[in-house]
Amino acid sequence: MPVTTSSASLLTIFGATGDLAQRMLLPSLYGLEADRLLPAGMNLLGTARSTLDEAGFRDAIATSIRTFVPEAQRDAAVLERLLARAHYQPASLDDDASMAALAARVHALRDGDVLYHLSTSPSFYVQACDALGRHGLNGPGTRVMLEKPIGHDLAEAIAINDGVTRTFDESQVYRVDHYLGKEGVQNLLALRFGNALFEPLWNARHIEHVQITVAETVGVEGRGDYYDGSGAIRDMLQNHMLQLLCLVAMEPPSQFEPTAVRNEKIKVLHALRPIGRNEVGAETVAGQYVAGAIAGKAVPGYVEELGRPSRTETFVALRAHIDNWRWSGVPFYLRTGKRMARRCSEIYLQFRAVPHSIFARAGASTQPNALLIKLQPDERIELQLMHKTPGLDRNGLRLSQVSLDLDLDEEFGNVRRRLAYERLYLDAIEGNGTLFVRRDETEAAWKWVDAILDGWACAGTPPRPYAAGTWGPNAALAMTERHGHSWRE
């Protein structure tokens, strides 16, 4: 049975001394504290294997804030308020006595609902939830946040979900995809469903194709062992990019609330046309970067960074179709990779050409309209339109493509840009699951991706090389050009 929630009185972070906590979680809590958005009296309990005392944990928090919060946003009074909430209890999942001590600390510090954030390897999720259940730390008034990825494939995802929901009801499980906490991703929903201008055009009658690109210039950055067991398709496409696809393609939900939004997203995943053994050769491209240059600086290839041979893909591009009335016949091109030409996350929708150009006899050519939604590193929306080129037209009429450009940093320059985890933490603390991923979404995404992975394994083709600092293998360009399209670069 779904459980009712109220604001958490205690946030317990497992893995509180880890890299994610230091870089993202603690600075996000600082940002919420600065704006006095954390519930009054809410405690923060950190736990990990590290045998810190509370003074040591508070020192770690202070170091995190000094390192990862911009100097202009630091305030000693805010830090003191955050540190006053902070407590620490060392614990190990395989040491029942330490877990009993953690349970006693949770019971002592809570005064209402409890949010557990498992900022650990997903391989520990079931063990952690079992331990919480054994010590009476589940039940009404509790909820648990899980970081992606949920498993390595569909079978592992099902096993993890089964294990977690032995202890917590599905309504208590908050699966994190931090992309859903980004301002630009949130704005995608507002753009689509808050403006009468776009929704009538948001379909196959008016949109010719869609591109979603998430490109990074960095390599594996010390995450080689993890990344080599994951690759681009598991690390980025299975979660982040398919979530973006769902937000672009979903039907309007009846209201902006968790069940309605998630119900529309799962319909998109179920409508994705399978890409299996017979289709992977034509509809997907896997690549792996070799030595090249980023911003004029030479960088090594993936196998040199890893230190051993590998067939793991660092780039994937594919052509997807959504077989429903709204999107029938519209290709969705998705690509993501490391060591690419520039860092960007963006969604590009190209509209269909005008059915008849009245300017053709005057020698003027038209280009299709397009909508570009940039998510990072800068957030902006560009609507590309045709416009008459200024002049007397003595040699014929000329048209140019121009952009109506909304720069969100400029428009909202006086508003602090929040970290994704600020929104995610605040929603989880308050019991709002709209921006979190439901179990059936996770498993449907894995089912679709597993078919691609099976096709690759059956073909036995290694990833294609591409030089660092480029847009991926030439085969990715050919995949779009075969259908009369080109990647936006």
**Largest sheet properties:** 9 strands, mixed
The CATH class of the largest domain turns out to be Alpha Beta
Mean pLDDT, to the nearest integer, reads: 91
> What count of structural domains?
2
At the third CATH level, what is the topology name of the largest domain? Dihydrodipicolinate Reductase, domain 2
- Per CATH, the superfamily of the largest domain is Dihydrodipicolinate Reductase, domain 2
**Outline:** globular
Number of strands: 17
Task: Give your account of this protein's structure.
It is built from 16 helices and 17 strands. It has two domains: 8-175, Rossmann fold (3-Layer(aba) Sandwich), CATH 3.40.50.720; 180-246 and 283-416 and 462-481, Dihydrodipicolinate Reductase, domain 2, CATH 3.30.360.10. The protein has helices at 19-34, 54-68, 76-85, 96-109, 125-134, 154-167, 183-193, 224-228, 231-249, 258-271, 280-283, 302-306, 408-411, 420-430, 439-459, 474-481, and strands at 8-14, 43-47, 86-88, 113-118, 142-146, 173-175, 207-215, 284-290, 292-294, 297-299, 315-321, 331-337, 344-351, 370-376, 380-388, 399-407, 464-467. It has a nine-stranded mixed sheet with strand order 16-15-14-13-7-12-11-8-17, with helices on both faces. Strands 3-2-1-4-5-6 form a six-stranded parallel sheet, sandwiched between helices. A two-stranded antiparallel sheet has the order 9-10. By secondary structure, the protein is α/β, with parallel strands linked by helices. Helix 1 crosses helix 3 (76-85). Strand 1, helix 1 (19-34) and strand 2 (43-47) form a beta-alpha-beta unit.
